[in-house]
TrEMBL record:
Coiled coil: none
UniProt-listed PANTHER family: FE(2+)/MN(2+) TRANSPORTER PCL1
Cellular component annotations (GO), alphabetically ordered: endomembrane system
InterPro entries: Ccc1_fam (IPR008217)
Major localization listed first in the record, in broad terms: membrane
Topology within the bilayer: Multi-pass membrane protein
Protein name: Similar to transmembrane calcium/manganese transporter Ccc1p
Signal peptide positions (record): none
Family from the record: Belongs to the CCC1 family.
Source organism (scientific name): Cyanidioschyzon merolae (strain NIES-3377 / 10D) (Unicellular red alga)
Length: 299
């Protein structure tokens, strides 16, 4: 069993300092000492050898390795899947639940919900495609505008770069060095302005189609969950009870899995998703039953 002294001396493996071992071998510093210096931001000032590009690269890799578990994956595909599945679990359930009060046979409800799933999947997929396409078009339009500004109004763009760096206390001499590079490499200049002035990153050109398939597909898959009991049980009211249970468990599982991508507490995400989805489904169910009662009164 490793002692505290061994950990402090860097002779035993420590998850907080192990990533810095490669840097320590390069610089002659012990991993725990280097980790402490990195945490205080005083590494480069106290050890000039760390000014080298190789040392900076090693430190960056060590930092990413140390904090890898704390970063979450919030890619567009995950967001699209969450959007589609969340709607798919609630809307078809509400429709099936509302129809359960009007029909006693599950077969009628299955046909209605399947029709809604097809229409809803197409609609959600189209919405995902339009959103993805709009993102690509916005980036292209802003980049063209930024290229024109760099070409025709470079002095104004240089002033904007000064405004970007000034809040961080960067000396004007250092900013001028950056501008000298940008004047020779206008493409880098445009890239910099897109990211740090406008806050835009280049989107995936295939995003519209991927978003359409992901949103539409996840909607259909999510919508099949509350429909399963109606496929297995002929009595609609009995199937409704099982559909409520299936949907609630699916919402819990959905929230649990979603937390793996968002970085939230799994239990908190599961309970929150089930509560929000349950409220949405209950509200939609209430509206459906209200319309059903109005129809019954009119007849």
């Amino acid at each position: 069993m490793q002692s505290q002294r061994d950990v402090e001396n860097g002779t035993c493996w420590n998850p907080d300092t192990a990533p810095y071992s490669a840097v320590g071998e390069t610089t002659g510093l012990r991993a725990p000492e280097l980790a402490q210096l990195a945490a205080t931001g005083s590494v480069r000032h106290q050890h000039p050898v760390l000014h080298s590009s190789r040392a900076r690269q090693l430190i960056l890799e060590a930092h990413h390795a140390r904090h890898q578990e704390k970063h979450s994956d919030s890619s567009g595909a995950v967001q699209d899947a969450i959007l589609g599945a969340a709607d798919g679990l609630t809307v078809p359930f509400a429709l099936a639940a509302g129809l359960s009060g009007a029909f006693t046979k599950s077969s009628y409800i299955v046909l209605a919900v399947l029709s809604e799933l097809v229409a809803g999947g197409i609609s959600m997929g189209l919405g995902g495609w339009l959103a993805g396409r709009s993102e690509v078009q916005t980036f292209e339009s802003e980049r063209e505008r930024e290229e024109r500004e760099v070409q025709h109004t470079p002095l104004a763009e240089e002033a904007e770069i000064y405004e970007i760096f000034r809040p961080f206390g960067v000396p004007e001499s250092a900013i001028e060095s950056v501008l000298a590079h940008f004047r020779e490499h206008p493409r880098d200049w445009v890239d910099f302005m897109m990211k740090f002035e406008l806050g835009l990153s280049e989107p995936d050109r295939n995003r519209p189609w991927r978003s359409a398939l992901t949103v539409g597909g996840s909607y259909v898959l999510g919508g099949l969950v509350p429909l399963i009991p109606y496929l297995l049980i002929s009595d609609a009211r009995e199937a409704l009870m099982w559909s409520i249970l299936f949907t609630f468990l699916a919402l819990l599982l959905f929230g649990w899995v979603k937390a793996g991508f968002t970085g939230q507490s799994r239990w908190k995400s599961a309970i929150e998703t089930a509560a929000v989805g349950g409220c949405a489904a209950a509200a939609a169910f209430g509206v459906a039953r209200w319309f059903d009662s109005l129809t019954s009164l009119s007849t």
